[in-house]
Amino acid sequence: MTQLMTEQSQPAFDDDVVLLTVPADGGYLGVLRTATAGLAARLHFALDEIEDLRIAVDEACAMLLAVAVRDAELCCRFAVTDDALTVEVTVPTVRGARLPAESSFAWKVLTALTTAASAEATGTSATIRLLTRRTAP
């Protein structure tokens, strides 16, 4: 089941948050790529920036799918501000799961395609955060 929910976060930040949950299956990554592109377009990102962000989200999700428990769901949180899009993807993980090292090719892709990338693994879940700021026109 795919869920889409929009909520206003704290008024002090005046940003929009979109939550999207899909099955942790490669067949559903297109939904996340499309949502990413739509939100980036809303921020008037350049076409190259939109494509870079789509690739980064796809790569982050692929990393998480590799450590996800069976029948898990990918939870994706998009935070939209005036000049940036933050994408946070979380999945429940198998015991002892490790994400690729920051020196790996996958992380080099993420850091090359975004303004900032970070990850956190708690033992029961893993989260990858991507921040992309729009370049000045």
Task: Provide an overview of this structure.
The chain is globular. Helix 2 (47-65) packs antiparallel against helix 3 (105-113). The model is unreliable at 1-13 (pLDDT under 50). The chain has helices spanning 29-42, 47-65, 105-113, and strands at 3-8, 16-23, 73-80, 84-92, 116-121, 125-133. The chain has one domain: Heat Shock Protein 90 (2-Layer Sandwich). The protein has a 6-stranded antiparallel beta sheet with strand order 1-2-3-4-6-5, with helices on one face. The chain is of the alpha+beta class and 137 residues long. This is Serine/threonine-protein kinase RsbW.
Q: Provide mean pLDDT, rounded.
A: 87
* Fraction of residues in helix: 25-40%
Task: State the major sheet.
Answer: 6 strands, antiparallel
Total discrete domains: 1
N-to-C SSE string, H for helix and E for strand: EEHHEEHEE
Distance between termini? 39 Å
Output the structural class: alpha+beta
Gyration radius, in Å: 14 Å
Strand content of the residues, in percent? 25-35%
Strand tally, please? 6
Strand order of the largest sheet: 1-2-3-4-6-5
Total number of helices: 3
Unreliable stretches, pLDDT < 50, 5 or more residues? 1-13
CATH architecture verdict: 2-Layer Sandwich
CATH superfamily: Histidine kinase-like ATPase, C-terminal domain
CATH class descriptor:
Alpha Beta
